[in-house]
Design brief:
Elements (H helix, E strand, L loop, with lengths): L19 H8 L2 H12 L6 E5 L5 H9 L4 E6 L2 H14 L4 E4 L12 E7 L7 H14 E12 L5 H14 L1 H8 L3 H7 L3 E9 L6 E7 L4
Parallel strand pairs: 1-2, 1-4, 2-3, 4-5
Antiparallel strand pairs: 5-7, 6-7
Helix pairs in contact: 6-7
Length: 219
């Protein structure tokens, strides 16, 4: 029997999972950074998009509602958030494939995706899990495919650093250190991605959230 892999639950504690959507909406200026992520993603009909750490399905649904003709797959290790995601997807009348797995070992085929996204996941992961998720994003992407990440990044002001301490206390000081210190772009590049850039920074009540882009070389 396989031992389930450990993961940090939504909001850092299992008992807070049911409140995740409400907290994210209030405390992260969710509409603003999700709109920026969607614009950068520029989904198109016929594309296959994989969301690593899809959580309660909010971003997957936003993408499907914008472009119903894309194929959307969400990957998350937490059965509780996947249950919430399934209910939301069914209520919206959309089709999103959900896979229960960790982002660093999703069990999907190589080069299956045109684009891979991840939202508010890396700051919850250990260094090894961060590297594993980025390596698998690279593996999943077709040549020329795009990786887009929305997550806490370098906290550029004392105020943002102070606010980000709320997240660090919930999700772990070591897990969040690379985000705080601005190391995520370097990690994306180390995973093999080219043209790595920070597209935007959104100040929020819990620290600033950056959107990062990386491209897999190829066609």
């Amino acid at each position: 029997m396989t031992t389930p892999r450990e993961f940090t639950p939504a909001l850092g504690r299992p008992e807070l999972t049911s409140q995740y959507d409400q907290v994210i909406a209030i405390m992260t200026r969710e509409r603003r950074w999700r709109a920026r992520l969607l614009a950068a993603l520029a989904p198109a009909a016929g594309e296959t998009i994989v969301d690593l750490g899809s959580g309660t399905g909010s971003m997957a649904l936003l993408i499907k509602e914008a472009v119903p003709g894309c194929r959307m797959t969400g990957v998350d290790p937490d059965p509780e958030v996947l249950a919430i995601a399934r209910a939301k997807i069914e209520a919206a009348g959309q089709q999103v494939e959900l896979v229960e797995a960790t982002g660093d070992a999703p069990g999907l085929e190589d080069e299956v995706a045109d684009k891979v996204i991840s939202s508010l996941v890396l700051h919850q992961c250990s260094q090894a899990a961060k590297e594993g998720l980025l390596a698998n994003a690279f593996r999943l992407l077709k040549p020329g495919g795009l990786l887009l990440i929305a997550d806490y990044g370098l906290q550029r002001t004392p105020l943002m650093s102070m606010l980000f301490r709320q997240v660090r206390a919930l999700d772990g000081y070591e897990n969040t250190r690379a985000n705080k210190d601005g190391e995520i772009p370097g990690m994306i590049a180390a995973a093999g991605f080219q043209d790595v850039s920070e597209l935007s920074v959104t100040p929020t009540p819990t620290g600033s959230i950056s959107i990062y882009l990386g491209r897999k070389a190829g066609a």
